[in-house]
Amino acid sequence: MQGRHSNRSTTNEQRGFNLLPWLLLLVIVGVIAVWWKVEQRKPVAEIAVRVPEAQTNQAAMDAERAAKARLEEQRRSFDAQLAQEKAKTEHDKAIDAAKKVYEKWKDAVILAESTPRMSLPAQIARMQDIRREASDLKVPKCLDEAKISLLSGMDKQIKGFFYFLGNEAKVGDKLFAIEFQSSLEDIKAFLVGLGACASGIVVQP
Fold first, then answer.
1. pTM, entire model
2. pLDDT tens by residue, 180-190
3. Cα 9 from chain centroid (whole Å)
4. Torsion of CA 96, 102, 108, 109, to 10 degrees
5. Of 176, 178, 158, nearest to 105 (Cα)?
6. Alpha carbons 170 and 115: distance in angstroms, whole number
7. Which of 198, 203, 160 is nearest to 182 (CA)?
8. Tens-place pLDDT, residues 16-46
9. Within the chain, which residues score under 70 in pLDDT?
10. In this structure, are residues 150 and 190 in contact, taking their beta carbons and an 8 Å threshold?
11. Residues near 147 by beta carbon (within 8 Å), at least 6 away in sequence
12. What percent of the chain has pLDDT over 90?
């Protein structure tokens, strides 16, 4: 009896040892299966993280480009405004300079008209100086024609005073009157052009 009991115990122990490798194998297989599932899910999780991150980066880049574009547009607008203000300032200065020269011319003509014939050379020289000053004026395009008219009127009036001074063949007074009358149309054209240029109105020639 004792021998049989001993044999059964040995058999049971052998069976227990035989099952142990299988149990270990099952555990290893289970661990591998779990690991495999985790690894399979990783790329999906990474993609899920990367997509929002990429979208966020793209949105940030778009926002930065939009901000730069706005700044560039503001800079251009500011530069254009400065250029416009500068042009207006230069335009106004040119108009004022033309007005001042004309006022000086009027005063010189009035003085010459009240000057005795023999004392006219000094007054004519003064008028010639003002005429050169008018010729040197830098004017905006809208005042080009008016400037030409002003110079033409000045030339005629200077010529008339020379006729009056010389009084050749006793016709100096008549020739003076002819030149002076003709100059008035030029002076009028200048004043019209000056007023139009100052107010921004385009005058057709």
1. 0.60
2. 999 999 999 99
3. 104
4. -160
5. 158
6. 19
7. 160
8. 556 666 677 777 777 777 777 766 665 555 5
9. 1-22, 38-55, 78-87, 168-169, 201-205
10. yes
11. 98, 134, 137, 139, 190
12. 40
DSSP string, 42-81: HHHHHHHHHHHHHHHHHHHHHHHHHHHHHHHHHHHHHHHH
Give the integer Cα–Cα distance in Å for 19 and 69.
75
Q: What is the Cα–Cα distance from 147 to 173, expressed in whole angstroms?
A: 28
Query: Per-residue DSSP letters for 125-188?
Result: HHHHHHHHHHHT----GGGHHHHHHHHHHHHHHHHHHHHHHH-GGG-HHHHHHHHHHHHHHHHH
Contact 116, 154 (CB under 8 A): no
Single-letter amino acid code for the residue at 141: K
In the chain, what is the straight-line distance between the N-terminal and C-terminal CA atoms, in Å? 145
